[in-house]
Amino acid sequence: MDGHGTLFGTLSGNTREILHKFTVDLPKKHGRGGQSAARFGRLREESRHNYVRKTAELATQLYINTSTSQPNVSGLILAGSADLKTELGQSNIFDPRLQAKILNVVDVSYGGENGFNQAIKLSAEILSNDKFVQEMRLIGKYFEEVSQDTGETIIKHFNKEQEADQRNFHDSATSSVLEIQEKTSLLEWFANEYRKFRCKLEFVTNKSQEGSQFCRGFGGIGGILRYQLDMRSFDELSDEEVYEDSE
C-alpha cells in the first residue's frame, strides 16, 4: 500500500497469487497559505481517510472467511513506501481479527507486483518455513555460484522434438546408428539415482520470479557442486588409458 494504490495477495507454499489491486489519485500537498490551503488540507485528509477505509474494507472481504468469520490466512505482512501501511495497521477501521494476524510491517521501494515480491524477500526470516521463500533462497544460491564461476557442468538431454530427430541417434564421426541401451525420463532418473551421489534433490517451480528466470535461462535444471571441478583434467587421459579403464 502506497500513495498510488494497493495490491492484495497471498503466499501459500510456493504459490504466489494476486487477489486484487486498485489505484488511487490522492491530492498532492498544497504549498500556498491562507484559507485555501486549510481547505485543501482538509480535502486531502478526507481523501486519505477514505483510501485507508477502502483498503481496510477490501482486506476484510479478501482475508476473512464469511462462513467461519475467521481469517483465511495464517499471517499478514503490511508493506509500502510511505506511512500509509502503518496508518492502516493501527487504524480502528482495520478489522481487529486481521490486526491480530500482522506478522511484519516493511518498507518497500516499489508499488504493485514488484513491491509484493520485495515484501516477501524482506520478510524472509519470518516466512522461513514457507516453501516459496525456501525456493527463492535455493535458486538465489544457484545464481550466486554461477556468477562466481565456481565451475559448471552442462548435461544435455533430449526434449520431445530432439528425441524425434533421428540424427541425434547417429554417431557424428561415422554416421553409424547408435544402439539404445536404456531409455528413461530425466526426472525419473534424478528421482532414482540422486542418493547414489550423496546429493540433495530439490524440485522448484516457475511460479516465483526467480523460478521463472531459472527455467528460462537454465532450462530448469542446475546443480551446485560441493567442490570446484576442472573439466580439463579429464582431457589428460590418453586413449590407451581410457581403453584400459573401459575393459
Automatic annotation (TrEMBL):
Residue ranges constituting the eRF1 domain according to the UniProt record: 1-128, 132-229
Alphabetized GO MF terms: translation release factor activity
InterPro entries: eFR1_2_sf, eRF1_2, eRF1_3, Peptide_chain-rel_eRF1/aRF1, Ribosomal_eL30-like_sf
Protein name as annotated: Eukaryotic peptide chain release factor subunit 1
Cited Pfam families: eRF1_2, eRF1_3
Membrane-crossing segments per the record: none
